[in-house]
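Readers of this paper often ask what the protein records in our data store actually look like. Nothing more is needed to write down the fold, since each code stands for a local backbone conformation. Below, we set out a record of this kind in full and without editing:
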Amino acid sequence: METELTALDPHAVESSEQSTRAHPLDLEFDASSLRRFPVELLKSLFELCVAHDKEGHVLSEDAMVRVLSRTCRRWRMITHSTPSLWQIMQINTMQDYRFKPRAAILYPIYEYFERSSPLPITCHLTLKAGVVCDEQYIRHIISMLSPRLRHLNVECGPAVCLVYSLMQLQCDLPALQSLRVSACDFDLGYSDDEDPEYANMTPLVGVFSTSPHLTDVSMKVGRFQYPQFVLPWSQLKELDMRIRNVQELQFLSDLENMESLSLTLTWYAGCERDWRALAIGGQVEVPRLRYLRIQGIYENITQVLDILQPCVLLDVDISQIRGSRHDGVSDIEADELLGSIAALHRRSSCSLRRLTLPVPVFSSPRAMFIAEDLAAVEELCLWLPFSRCNDKLCVDVLSNLASTSAFQNVKTLHLDIQQGCVKAFEPFALLSAFLGIAEARTGTLEHLSFKLLNHWMGMVVESEYTKTGAKLFRDGRLGA
């Protein structure tokens, strides 16, 4: 960048100072070229500002759209005549408004609703911890927005009763496409299977059960003593749900259009009688399933994998697993899990392209033999779990992956070390073993990534590892 310095004209400086003193506010805004921008360009800039506004919310004067409308008369006319600036509603808390009249709370929301017409609405409702929520307000707000509500995201915090209340809304949601509900997870100290009150609850049919266009649902409501919510299973395309009981898996047989399925299995293992009582009838075909993510106890994970029969499965992600030992899964458990994944791959008419697994799964002597059935995998993501895992064992596993003929078609390789998994002197040994996998490849790796999350230790890549990576690139065995 080049800067040109010129002498200042004293008469011009004096004239500018006089103008500033005479019209200070006008000069402040006139100095900005934004005032001369065409309307369409200003609308685009305003939409970007509103989309990235994380602080202001509907019930606050700090909301970006309100700040823009207060800047000048021209901007106010633009904001008030642009419905897209008002269609995202962030209602962050009721804490500061509990003692205000009901009209004072609902009017700003009604203003957003009217100014956004006729566009669909996205509503993010977040309740802070420790805030007593008036359910009538929340239900009235959602009922008001219901004709044009397309996306609803509710973070209930400790307001557990609101989860149940949402299903009992007396309104129609004809435009709703996505629903995300989350609430705190309280451990009640016993399994839901052992609670007779929970066992006798009938699945609840509510307003979301009949939403005609609902396709994306995330329900993370923890271990609450409420019945399972009945959703329009056959029309769902994406589902992220916490499963508290084996019987809640009945919906698996109805997932005709499911493309992305994420399950968190929270019940205790050892429920063979419940699996036998599951009225699914053998394996369940999920014809359009492409992405499958499961986390929980290894025994429950393998049971779910064994009953699924996908047709076009491309991506399997075991993002969290707990074994019978305090330091991870045993060799037998690892073999069973890997065998279930291989069998799932064989049942699918499509070849598995992406696989995410914890490193200890490959710790058993038979692991590499089982992994040969997964030769079609093109992207392999390995991660070290946040636990007291054996660091030397992980290094040995990576070394075994380098010496095996399994995964020879892999084009992308990732290693993710979570915070606190390794000691201060171990990451370099892991990195060395990881690069050894790339060195042992017969084909070219297009992408190679190594991520270490450890805030207390500065990770300095030593020259030998930099040289190894450079050599792999020069030899054509590591893509750009």
